[in-house]
Amino acid sequence: MISGESRESIHNETARMSREGFNSHLERLVLCCSVFQEGEVVYKSFKTEIDPTPEQITKINKTLGVCRFVYNLFIVHNKERYENGENFVSGNTFAVWLNNEFLPNNPDHMWIKEVSSKAVKRSIDDADAAFRNFFKGRCGYPQFKKKSRSDVKMYFYRGNSIGCKCERHRIKIPTIGWVRLKEKGYIPTTDSGLYILSGRISKRAGRYYVSAMVDVPDKEPAVAETEGIGVHLGVKELAVLSSGESYENINKTAKVKKLEERLSREQRKLSRKLESKKHGGETQGKNIEKQRLKVQRLYQRISDVREDHINKTIAEIVKTKPSYIAIADIEVNRMVLDRFTAKAVRDQRLREFREKLTVKCHEYGIELRLAPKYFRSTSICSSCGETVGGVKLSDKYIRCDCGSKMKKALNASINLRNMTAYTVI
Known about the structure:
This protein is an alpha+beta fold. The chain has eleven helices and 16 strands. Helix 3 packs parallel to helix 5 (117-135) and helix 6 packs antiparallel against helix 7. The longest helix has 34 residues, at 285-318. It is globular, with a radius of gyration of 25 Å. The two termini are 27 Å apart.
């Protein structure tokens, strides 16, 4: 457990960094990877659904709208400066311009001041980071955030000892107050000695979620109870272990297929309503929004089913406490170029599986081994070590001249387990 003095210094440092706008990298790392370690301190994010009151929903929606407007305004401002031959404006400089020039000259936009200033500042920092990533060639030019599509978040942080608190059934958020939690007991409570450092509120398909970053005690490394295992990821089956266990492709189940069929029907309904309105029909805008919300909720439902399957699969693999886990370096970007298998590859979420497995292994102290980029795990015989020629993607079994016959996925997982050249991640 972290001492009280150390915790207080961490909280003061986090508050200072948030005011200056320089903790965006840490925040994104925590929200994406769930765990971030710094010495004895472990920052972990917990995301769960909340049940706000109608008044709180109005305030959250207003804050999200302001954050979206400020984000888009940052893009417009820098685009105009570029067209006029002027230099790029950073997030801090833009915040000064917004408060000292834009708002005094545009009093009709004073509603920007009616929401949390920390959320507005973080939205500016996000836009600034998007431009800097574009300059470094990491991504494309920043795009405007649209109300019905973009994932805008409301940022908050613990400025003092009573700024953010959490009880079993509710969480206290600055400027919002106490908000009920739908999943009780998931986020560590304040009474347990753990504190919320910062977090974000997001909206998706008409539902609201909170992601809270908490400093938790570091876990002791797990004692290996079994030998290392190899994990082969694929499309026919999500994962095949060298021990012989396999995990199904959730997208081939009747549950997901029915949801996808229902999604197709609702999408056709939405398309007809939009076409009717486009050609001067009597379709009301509210009916279109209701239909759009149905489509969004189905998308979320399918996404949650897939994510839950990945989480349970990883949990079962890690709980066996192997000495190490070996996986292949899959190039998903190249796999989706084939238009016949692109959807199946995307639906499997192989990149997400690897990211979550990496986080889980770091959390439990398990060594994660990554095979070389062009390691031919599927075409090497795991019995004799010789390369088998003529192995096709459609082949279910691999047959070697030594007399060995084995399922190709199982053979690949055994080769991953036995490989000697690897990178620890």
